[in-house]
Amino acid sequence: MISPEGARVARIFDGLGMEFEHAFAGRKQAQTDAVEDLARRLAPGARVLDVGCATGRPTTEQLVAKGLDVTGTDVSEVMLAHARRQVPRARFVLADLFGEVPAELGLYDAVVCLFCFVDLPEPSFVEGLRRLAARTVPGGTLLLAVLERRDAEEARFLGRTYRAARCLREDVDHYARLAGLEVERVEVRVEAPARGPAPSEPENSLYLWARRPV
pLDDT, tens digit, for every residue of 189-206? Predict the structure, then answer.
Protein backbone atom coordinates (compact mmCIF):
# COMPACT_ATOMS: atom_id res chain seq x y z
CA MET A 1 0.00 0.00 0.00
CA ILE A 2 1.30 3.46 -0.91
CA SER A 3 1.25 6.04 1.90
CA PRO A 4 -0.04 9.59 1.29
CA GLU A 5 3.55 10.87 1.27
CA GLY A 6 4.55 8.06 -1.10
CA ALA A 7 1.71 9.03 -3.43
CA ARG A 8 2.92 12.65 -3.43
CA VAL A 9 6.45 11.54 -4.31
CA ALA A 10 5.09 9.20 -6.99
CA ARG A 11 3.29 12.08 -8.71
CA ILE A 12 6.54 14.06 -8.85
CA PHE A 13 8.57 11.20 -10.31
CA ASP A 14 5.81 10.13 -12.67
CA GLY A 15 6.10 13.63 -14.13
CA LEU A 16 9.90 13.51 -14.34
CA GLY A 17 10.22 10.18 -16.15
CA MET A 18 13.56 9.79 -17.96
CA GLU A 19 14.42 13.43 -17.23
CA PHE A 20 15.46 12.18 -13.78
CA GLU A 21 18.04 9.79 -15.20
CA HIS A 22 19.33 12.27 -17.78
CA ALA A 23 19.83 14.96 -15.13
CA PHE A 24 22.47 12.82 -13.43
CA ALA A 25 24.29 11.51 -16.50
CA GLY A 26 28.02 11.57 -15.79
CA ARG A 27 27.49 12.57 -12.15
CA LYS A 28 27.26 9.18 -10.44
CA GLN A 29 30.90 8.08 -10.16
CA ALA A 30 30.98 8.21 -6.36
CA GLN A 31 27.74 6.25 -6.25
CA THR A 32 28.84 3.61 -8.75
CA ASP A 33 32.14 3.22 -6.86
CA ALA A 34 30.23 2.54 -3.63
CA VAL A 35 27.97 -0.01 -5.35
CA GLU A 36 31.08 -1.67 -6.81
CA ASP A 37 32.46 -1.96 -3.27
CA LEU A 38 29.18 -3.55 -2.15
CA ALA A 39 29.16 -6.07 -5.02
CA ARG A 40 32.69 -7.19 -4.16
CA ARG A 41 31.64 -8.21 -0.67
CA LEU A 42 28.65 -10.28 -1.81
CA ALA A 43 28.66 -13.86 -3.08
CA PRO A 44 27.49 -14.53 -6.66
CA GLY A 45 23.71 -14.83 -6.74
CA ALA A 46 23.23 -12.97 -3.44
CA ARG A 47 19.85 -11.30 -3.07
CA VAL A 48 19.92 -7.49 -3.15
CA LEU A 49 17.05 -5.03 -2.71
CA ASP A 50 17.37 -1.61 -4.37
CA VAL A 51 14.89 0.67 -2.60
CA GLY A 52 13.93 3.72 -4.64
CA CYS A 53 15.39 2.20 -7.81
CA ALA A 54 13.86 4.84 -10.16
CA THR A 55 14.72 3.99 -13.79
CA GLY A 56 16.97 1.10 -12.77
CA ARG A 57 20.12 2.97 -13.76
CA PRO A 58 22.78 2.97 -12.67
CA THR A 59 22.41 0.92 -9.48
CA THR A 60 20.05 -1.96 -10.33
CA GLU A 61 21.72 -2.43 -13.70
CA GLN A 62 25.18 -2.39 -12.10
CA LEU A 63 24.24 -5.00 -9.48
CA VAL A 64 22.64 -7.31 -12.05
CA ALA A 65 25.78 -7.10 -14.18
CA LYS A 66 27.73 -8.41 -11.18
CA GLY A 67 25.68 -11.61 -11.15
CA LEU A 68 23.46 -10.68 -8.20
CA ASP A 69 19.75 -11.47 -7.80
CA VAL A 70 18.27 -7.97 -7.67
CA THR A 71 14.82 -6.65 -6.84
CA GLY A 72 14.07 -2.95 -7.25
CA THR A 73 11.21 -1.08 -5.60
CA ASP A 74 9.77 2.36 -6.21
CA VAL A 75 6.55 4.27 -5.56
CA SER A 76 6.38 5.50 -9.17
CA GLU A 77 4.80 3.24 -11.78
CA VAL A 78 6.39 5.37 -14.51
CA MET A 79 9.85 4.84 -13.06
CA LEU A 80 9.23 1.11 -12.73
CA ALA A 81 8.11 0.88 -16.36
CA HIS A 82 11.41 2.44 -17.46
CA ALA A 83 13.33 0.15 -15.10
CA ARG A 84 11.66 -3.01 -16.43
CA ARG A 85 12.51 -1.94 -19.98
CA GLN A 86 16.11 -1.02 -19.21
CA VAL A 87 17.04 -3.81 -16.78
CA PRO A 88 14.95 -6.83 -17.84
CA ARG A 89 16.98 -9.29 -15.75
CA ALA A 90 15.91 -7.65 -12.47
CA ARG A 91 12.56 -7.93 -10.71
CA PHE A 92 10.64 -4.73 -9.97
CA VAL A 93 7.86 -4.21 -7.43
CA LEU A 94 5.66 -1.21 -6.65
CA ALA A 95 6.31 -0.62 -2.94
CA ASP A 96 6.53 2.22 -0.45
CA LEU A 97 9.11 1.96 2.34
CA PHE A 98 6.81 3.96 4.63
CA GLY A 99 3.64 2.14 3.58
CA GLU A 100 2.65 -1.50 3.83
CA VAL A 101 5.52 -3.41 2.24
CA PRO A 102 4.39 -6.43 0.18
CA ALA A 103 5.06 -9.60 2.14
CA GLU A 104 6.45 -11.36 -0.93
CA LEU A 105 9.49 -9.11 -0.92
CA GLY A 106 11.07 -11.25 1.79
CA LEU A 107 14.61 -10.72 3.10
CA TYR A 108 17.85 -9.82 1.33
CA ASP A 109 21.57 -10.27 1.83
CA ALA A 110 21.99 -6.55 1.19
CA VAL A 111 19.66 -3.57 0.96
CA VAL A 112 20.61 -0.43 -0.96
CA CYS A 113 18.83 2.93 -0.62
CA LEU A 114 20.59 5.78 -2.39
CA PHE A 115 19.47 9.41 -2.08
CA CYS A 116 15.86 8.71 -1.09
CA PHE A 117 16.05 10.25 2.41
CA VAL A 118 16.55 13.80 1.10
CA ASP A 119 14.23 15.73 3.40
CA LEU A 120 13.55 13.47 6.38
CA PRO A 121 13.67 14.76 9.96
CA GLU A 122 15.25 12.53 12.60
CA PRO A 123 12.17 10.42 13.57
CA SER A 124 11.35 9.57 9.95
CA PHE A 125 15.00 8.94 9.11
CA VAL A 126 15.37 6.50 12.00
CA GLU A 127 12.08 4.76 11.15
CA GLY A 128 13.19 4.48 7.52
CA LEU A 129 16.43 2.81 8.60
CA ARG A 130 14.47 0.40 10.80
CA ARG A 131 12.29 -0.53 7.85
CA LEU A 132 15.31 -1.07 5.61
CA ALA A 133 16.86 -3.28 8.30
CA ALA A 134 13.63 -5.29 8.47
CA ARG A 135 14.20 -6.32 4.82
CA THR A 136 17.80 -7.41 5.54
CA VAL A 137 18.84 -10.86 6.75
CA PRO A 138 20.56 -10.95 10.17
CA GLY A 139 24.17 -10.06 9.51
CA GLY A 140 23.26 -8.57 6.12
CA THR A 141 24.55 -5.27 4.77
CA LEU A 142 22.71 -1.98 4.46
CA LEU A 143 24.12 0.75 2.20
CA LEU A 144 22.45 4.15 2.39
CA ALA A 145 23.51 7.42 0.75
CA VAL A 146 22.31 10.94 1.49
CA LEU A 147 23.55 14.41 0.62
CA GLU A 148 25.48 16.15 3.38
CA ARG A 149 23.65 19.25 4.67
CA ARG A 150 25.31 21.62 7.11
CA ASP A 151 22.02 23.29 8.01
CA ALA A 152 18.32 22.90 7.28
CA GLU A 153 17.88 24.75 4.01
CA GLU A 154 15.72 25.25 0.99
CA ALA A 155 16.95 23.07 -1.87
CA ARG A 156 16.04 22.81 -5.54
CA PHE A 157 15.78 19.64 -7.59
CA LEU A 158 14.88 19.65 -11.29
CA GLY A 159 12.93 22.88 -10.92
CA ARG A 160 11.21 21.86 -7.69
CA THR A 161 11.87 23.34 -4.26
CA TYR A 162 11.81 21.41 -0.99
CA ARG A 163 12.96 21.88 2.59
CA ALA A 164 16.02 19.70 3.28
CA ALA A 165 16.90 18.73 6.86
CA ARG A 166 20.41 19.09 8.28
CA CYS A 167 22.35 15.89 7.71
CA LEU A 168 25.94 15.51 8.92
CA ARG A 169 28.19 12.49 9.22
CA GLU A 170 27.57 12.29 12.95
CA ASP A 171 23.82 12.56 12.40
CA VAL A 172 23.76 9.54 10.08
CA ASP A 173 25.86 7.51 12.51
CA HIS A 174 23.55 8.46 15.38
CA TYR A 175 20.36 7.68 13.45
CA ALA A 176 21.69 4.27 12.41
CA ARG A 177 22.50 3.36 16.01
CA LEU A 178 19.05 4.51 17.14
CA ALA A 179 17.62 2.18 14.49
CA GLY A 180 19.49 -0.73 16.07
CA LEU A 181 22.05 -1.14 13.29
CA GLU A 182 25.70 -2.05 13.72
CA VAL A 183 27.56 0.80 12.04
CA GLU A 184 30.71 -0.09 10.12
CA ARG A 185 31.46 3.42 8.89
CA VAL A 186 30.01 6.59 7.37
CA GLU A 187 32.07 7.72 4.39
CA VAL A 188 32.17 11.15 2.82
CA ARG A 189 32.38 11.00 -0.98
CA VAL A 190 32.34 13.91 -3.43
CA GLU A 191 29.63 13.84 -6.09
CA ALA A 192 30.46 15.37 -9.46
CA PRO A 193 28.87 18.75 -10.25
CA ALA A 194 26.09 19.18 -12.77
CA ARG A 195 27.10 20.38 -16.23
CA GLY A 196 25.27 22.11 -19.04
CA PRO A 197 23.07 25.22 -18.81
CA ALA A 198 22.61 24.96 -15.02
CA PRO A 199 26.02 23.94 -13.59
CA SER A 200 26.39 23.28 -9.88
CA GLU A 201 29.16 22.96 -7.34
CA PRO A 202 30.44 19.51 -6.26
CA GLU A 203 28.48 18.12 -3.31
CA ASN A 204 29.51 15.87 -0.47
CA SER A 205 27.49 12.72 0.03
CA LEU A 206 27.43 10.49 3.10
CA TYR A 207 27.53 6.71 2.60
CA LEU A 208 26.41 4.62 5.55
CA TRP A 209 27.70 1.06 5.74
CA ALA A 210 25.89 -0.91 8.43
CA ARG A 211 24.72 -4.40 9.33
CA ARG A 212 21.57 -5.82 10.82
CA PRO A 213 22.62 -7.47 14.08
CA VAL A 214 22.68 -11.28 14.12
Answer: 987 665 544 445 668 999
